[in-house]
Amino acid sequence: MIEPRTCLVTGASRGIGAAVAARLSADGHRVALLARDVTALESVRDRLPSPALCVAADVTDAVQVDAAVGRVEREWGSVEVLVSNAGAGFAAPLVDTSDDDWARMLALNLTAPFRLVRRVLPPMLEQGWGRIVVVASVVAKRGEAQVAAYTAAKHGVLGLVRAAAAELARTGVTVNAVCPGYVDTPMTDGTVEAVAARSGRTPDEALAALARRQPIGRLVDPEEVADAVLFCVGNAAVTGQGVNVDGGAVQS
Q1: Whole-angstrom Cα distance, residue 252 to residue 250?
Q2: Are residues 201 and 241 in the same domain?
Q3: Cα separation of the two ends of the chain
């Protein structure tokens, strides 16, 4: 376990982000929680054993991101561990995906992580230590029907991770991605509803169909994704990787 660090987790109000925050806090790190819903952030904060800071911001707004990181720096010092988790999916046939749909997916799932990495990197380089983990997706490594915009954004963010890791390999800063499959989170609940609406299945049938797509036959638990994030934070020799947490769906 590494010494206590100052961490920033985006999308921290629920799901994977909340699980990652809990694991970091349990290991003694200070965790800044970032999301749009401050009430939900406070609920997460109140369950953490170590000091936590709630920062309300929209990661797609460059001004808000800069201000949010600036607040962490003023109150705690520079961000030493960034977990860029905020994201969302969108499903539609390619021909029904509008320019706005495409732009929204890239803004949230690709441009926002890029801005966060760029913003926190200079102090990491100055001190010669940093950990950056982006929560991507299994579709960062394979194409999937009905989610062209989301898939393209996640492929892009994995490329960002790999390029940054190559550039920073000798600096003491590692950059990795964690690539979950279907996780038991509110985001997957939305996917279940969309699948049910499109297919005429019941929500339970749609959920079972998603679970069957993973060789382990179930959804991934958010804590299992958090375990992979903590592995990337703790191991200085792991960089430029896309760590699959998908029940064996993609073997790479």
Answers
A1: 6
A2: no
A3: 27
Domain assignment of residue 202, given as a range: 182-219
* CA atoms 216, 176, 41, 43: torsion sign: positive
The pLDDT tens digits for 184-203 are 887 777 777 777 777 778 88
Residue 139 sits in a domain whose CATH number is 3.40.50.720
1-35, pLDDT tens digit by residue? 689 999 999 999 999 999 999 999 999 999 999 99
User: What is the domain count for the chain?
Assistant: 2
Rounded CA separation 205/3 (Å): 45
For 171-183, b where at least 16 C-beta lie within 10 A, e where not — what string?
eebbbbbbbbbbb
182 an active-site residue?
Answer: no
Residue of 19, 20, 105, 150 marked active site: 150
